[in-house]
Amino acid sequence: MATAISDTMTEQRYSVSESFLSGEHGKTRYWASQPQHGLPVVFIHGYAAMIDHWRRIIRPVAREHTFYALDLYGFGQSARPRGTPTRERWAKQVADFIREVVGGPAVIVGHSMGGVVAVEVARRYPELTRGLVLVNSSGMQVSERPPSQFDMMMMSAIGAPLLGEAVAGLFTNPLSVDWSVRQGLLSAYHHKERVTDELVETFSAPLRRYGAASYLAVSRNFQGLIIDAKAGEITAPSLLIWGAEDRSIPPSDAEAIKGRVLPQAELAILPSTGHCPFDETPELFCDALLPWLGRL
Predict the structure, then answer these.
(1) pLDDT tens by residue, 237-267
(2) In the list 3, 74, 114, 232, which could disulfide-bond 44, CB 3.0-4.6 Å?
(3) CA-CA distance, 139 to 114, in Å (whole number)?
(4) Contact in structure between 115 and 135 (CB atoms under 8 Å)
(5) Residue 91 and residue 119: Cα distance in Å, rounded?
(6) Which one-letter DSSP state was computed for residue 36?
(7) What are the backbone angles phi and psi of residue 24, rounded to the nearest 5°?
(8) How confident is the model over 184-231, as pLDDT tens digits?
(9) How far apart are alpha carbons 5 and 7 in whole angstroms?
(10) How many CA atoms lie within 13 A of 208 on its CB side?
(11) For residues 147 and 141, what is the distance between their CA atoms, to the nearest angstrom?
(12) What predicted TM-score, i.e. pTM, was given to this entire model?
């Protein structure tokens, strides 16, 4: 795939190509922009998402820097390896991608669950991390909001053999997959009008094609997908971008990450924005990200 991106302000043209990288656990689907200039910036999506979720900010990023994004194992069009999905396995996937495709240290941007992966990359592979950006990152829920009895009951149900598959099947049935995806997105977005039929289809297509097995495996390891780094372990320049209206992962989690993990981080809270700032309010997102990249 190669998509031309024209910039009428500068009369420059950029292209974004799709490729696949062979790895330890199978293929990794990725996008990369041309020409290569500025900083290499690698975007890591969140749970149940994929590269395409970044589509609204590709143009402004590619105008100044080289845009990279990949599908984590188990999501999008990347491989569905067996075994428990862990932050360590995904971090190695990203590190291998940076070595083999980017060719040098990169700024790593992680959204939601992708933030947990980004932190793990920065912690384990500091030589590959030029900067770290977390966007409405998960990883602090267990410490900030311990699971309730209902949460524990649901996690037990999901973890139970056969029962978990049955629960997942209810949400991925061909007759209901679009409805369940739409409801999930509506709960995450503050700007409900951004949840378009096109966005729903983007998220539904992998579920129809591959089923819910990899999603279920991630849900079963939810309590293992935490930010485990301590203050001082990561020294890379860092930025936290957060939607002020995120109801699932509120801005207080950003404060917790800054206080406990990344004291050097700058913090940008975006007004009237939910869990997915780059898709809900892409202009505000880029106003926070691009000047910070410029200072690197």
Answers:
(1) 999 999 999 999 999 999 999 999 999 999 9
(2) 114
(3) 10
(4) yes
(5) 9
(6) -
(7) -60, -35
(8) 999 999 999 999 999 999 999 998 888 877 788 887 787 788 999 999
(9) 7
(10) 14
(11) 8
(12) 0.90
